[in-house]
Amino acid sequence: MCKHVRQNKLEQVCQLQNLADQLQEVRPQKRKVRFLHDNARSHVATKTRQKLLELGWDVLPHAAHSPDLSPTDFHLFRALSNVLQDKKFNTQDEINTFLNDYFNSLPPSFYADGINSLPDRWQKVIDCDGDYCT
Hints:
By secondary structure, the chain is an all-alpha fold. It folds into 2 domains: about 1-60, no CATH class; about 65-134, Nucleotidyltransferase, domain 5, CATH 3.30.420. The chain is built from 7 helices and 2 strands. The chain has a two-stranded parallel sheet with strand order 1-2. This is Transposase. It comes from Euphydryas editha (Edith's checkerspot). GO terms for molecular function: nucleic acid binding. InterPro entries: RNaseH_sf, Transposase-MT_Hybrid.
């Protein structure tokens, strides 16, 4: 049902359902999901929170304005920014091709390393009394 929905109201809910379906396919024995996302408006919307409750996922708390807790910010985008230095693109197609090739070239361990470093990052936030840590 949700695979091709692009309405803003339903997009986040559909993405969660698609993710749940994919997780069920690749890890059918594992039921426990711990889910981390930031406090963006679409992530805290009523429909999104209801979907997370329906899925039974544990939603991990995310401190506001904490890019050090977002794997995309501290891990993925930092690595991407390094490979983008001095790159020039002439068309949107060149950008899309580059990004697809780049993300497809990263080994699964790259993504796992970003996720696995979260407990240490959370501890730093605790040690800083919730303030932004560098």
